[in-house]
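REQUEST ID: PR-0412
SUBMITTED BY: lab tech R.K.
PRIORITY: routine
TASK: structure prediction, single protein chain
INPUT:
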Amino acid sequence: MKRLKTEIFLYLTVYLLAGCTASKKIPYFQDSGEHFNQKIEQDYELKIRPDDLLSIMVNSKDAELVQMFNLPIVRYDFAGPGTGGGGAGNVLGYTVNQSGDIDFPQLGTLTVQGKTRSELATYIKEQLIAGGYVKDPVVTVQFLNFRVSVLGEVNRPGSFNLKSDRVSILDAISEAGDLTIYGKRDNVRVIREENGERSIAMLDLKSAAIFQSPYYYLRQNDIVYIEPNKVKAGQSEINQNRSIGTLAAITSVLISLAVLIFK
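STATUS: complete
OUTPUT:
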């Protein structure tokens, strides 16, 4: 009886210690403390790059005057049987070519690569006024193809088109339904292509130091990969071994039947 009590005590002790150890691997920002203040120093404004798709809208008190500067809105009909009709409007955009330029009405070729949205809006506004086209233009620039992909141990992996261009890695993970219990919090990879080069950064979601990383704010076409932990990897190996064992058993039965039939 005494031996049984000792075994139960040891089992519970190991179980509780394992639970405490596991709980330390799950929470984010474990070293932030109760009161955490940090000045935001990263430049999260996106720079325009080749292959970006831009929406550029020009407004003025005289709507007819600025009509020539605005691309039309194309409406796609998605009506089906019994739907009663319907459609969705999409604004056409300017695609930045490999030289970093766009062709804008009246102003001609504009070099936009390296500019932020606000810088490009100011530049176009100045050009319209200087050329005598519009006296009071209001220019709005938006990205139409800001997309990030989240892969690996998340609840909803996939590519996400986001309306805002101020997107952090936490925003992207939130869009993907957060990490599963099997995702490694301390080894999150961000894959980025920029200036003809590809880079991979490792981020630790368990540390508040992530806020200082230049990869904390994502850019166009970034890929976030969540690596599975050892538990998930072990389960995969067990499942694979079970599949191999099942296949071997089936093969053995088929061989035995063949021997009986053709004996």
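NOTES: DSSP finds four helices and twelve strands in the chain.
REVIEWED BY: pending
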